[in-house]
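Posting for a labmate who doesn't have an account.
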Amino acid sequence: MFSYALNAISFILENDALRDRFLALSGLTPDEIRASIQEPDFLASVLEFLINHEPDLIDFSETINEKPETIVAAWRHLGGGAGQEW
């Protein structure tokens, strides 16, 4: 599950528009990203960023050759959506 989130970080940072939006929305600096790279909450938030915009989720899923549902399952495994049952 961590590997999906680590791949998502790379996917986001390699795309200028996604990177800029992620940094703007999260308020994180590159140093803070590096410091948080092993934290499950941070990794869940990276996947949540993609999940919250379906075109990004689909692009990422296709890039890593996985179903979007697999990414959502990884997000939940990392603690994303705790208390949400949908």
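Reply:
Got it, the structure tokens are right above this. The two ends are 20 Å apart (CA to CA).
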